[in-house]
Amino acid sequence: MAKKKQRSVPKKPKFEIEYAEEVYGHLDVIETKYHRTIQEAILEQLSHTPTVETRNRKPLEPPAPFEPPAPFEATWEIRFGQHNEFRALYEVKEIEKIVYILAIGVKDGNRLIVGKEEFET
What we know:
By secondary structure, the chain is α+β, with helices and mostly antiparallel strands. The protein has a single domain, classed as RelE-like (YaeB-like fold, 2-Layer Sandwich), CATH 3.30.2310.20. Helices cover 17% and strands 32% of the residues. Strands 1, 2, 3, 4, 5, 6 and 7 form a seven-stranded mixed sheet that branches. Strand 5 and strand 6 form a beta hairpin. The longest helix has 12 residues, at 35-46.
């Protein structure tokens, strides 16, 4: 008798993802074709373990590597995209189980472009 193939049930997210109002303005300067990639990467990478450091997810240590200091009061950064060209800056409220996306930008060399602002990294 053949074994039935078990379907994996998607895990329920442990953390809710919320976007700051300004993020929608940041997305306006990023080509629309990338919006789905950005949304999926954020959901996949941050809904379960947003405070586990990985190669592409790091805490922003004070002083953060930005001039001026950490934009948008973010405490974490995640990089993603085909060439890791996108960045999401966020903070985590552990007790409430909420990840607040504070900024989304594009990395270009040593510059992070968020909306119409540029930050040196």
